[in-house]
Model the fold of this input.
Amino acid sequence: MAGQFDFLWNNIRERAKALVNPISYSTFIENLVPVDVVNKKIVLQAESELAALTITKNHIDKLREAVVSAGVGLTGAIIVVEGSETYSVNELPDAVEESSVALDPRYTFESFVVGSSNKFVFAAAKSVAENPGENFNPLYIYGGTGLGKTHLMQAIANDISQKKPSLKVIYTTSEKFLNEYVDSMYAKKGAGRDNETRFRNRYRNVDVLLIDDIQFWAGKYGVQEAFFHAFNELFSQHKQIVISSDCPAKELTTLEERLRTRFEGGLIADIQPPDLETKIAILKRKALEKKFVVPDDVLAFLVKNSDNNVRTLEGRLNTVIFASKLHEEPISLPLAAAALQEAIGTDEQEEITPDAIIRATCSYFNTSKEDLLGKNKRQEIVRARQVCTYLLCDMLALPLVTVGKLMGGRDHSTVIYARDKIAELMRVNDKVAKDVNDVKSAVLKQ
Done:
């Protein structure tokens, strides 16, 4: 029964051996048996209630230190005795790993490009990561699409998880929080009866809670109520809360007043659009991440007449890198100009419209506008729909809600999925990268 947890316990036990005096170790610790893992805590079975009492009274802090220092992803220990009501697991598994959004290890403070437009919010995020719950609580980050909010949010979570592994950290999106809330309300029977309790415990028993894009709760008062109570519980215990939005708290007029005032009671930090130097620095870092050296004149060209969306900048860079691979030529100014279908030094091209992108996509994939914007599930139609969604985000930097409306009334989560799916495929699939760039070229030629 315990065999599946031995690999965890063996590592922890070696650490404990160095922390607990030899007699206590051989008498109480050495004979513990690992039987389960609950809420990132290893469940250890003692031989008797007397042994369990001694361990929990005299050695639990050292045992917890051993668990954390073992580096096996656990944060503590629970001592149980078979058949005992006193020493049993009395907390529900909270499935944090299932409920939270997976962190991207690339989103760190070191990989975030700091400039005059974001140095204040960067410093605030660093301060929160260094001393969660002590300096700025809550931290409310806001800014336009593609300026780095998610990067900073995940950098905070990554930094705390790495440097303070004993703290329980949840990073999630407002959409995922909403979906879990709805599931907890409508699960009425069987195992689902515990869902509401699990949901409540999950978000009230953390040390750091980060929720991205909170503006999507506008008008959804049930989920606002649930978060309000979780917020109060965490705040009263000095647990860190970090929230992001695309607008200042005072402009979230469809959120309840009591939530807005709590947001405004912490630190509000905005990310301004990057200046020219910061845009170039961002592209230079992105190029190095992709193991490409891009000349400075090409970087300057890529940011010329660009909008403030970092994803749009990266899209331009990806286009040039793809052209370099396709033609087997080093990256140069002429290559970049040809790849982007722009002439160096000319006036800004005519404004690109959503209709132009939709028309070009339909033409390239040989499909009708009705199918593209409708519910046709054929694989080739779905891929065309995803490419069109990506290009609307990439070339126009429109709000996600607007893109969803343009794409037939789809919700923002569908837009995010399509955008990110194509962005990821372009990195690993040359056929998809070619399709995207061919449609983009067709749009620019219209």
Summary: The chain has 20 helices and eight strands. The longest helix spans residues 49-69. The CA atoms of residues 125 and 152 lie 7 Å apart.
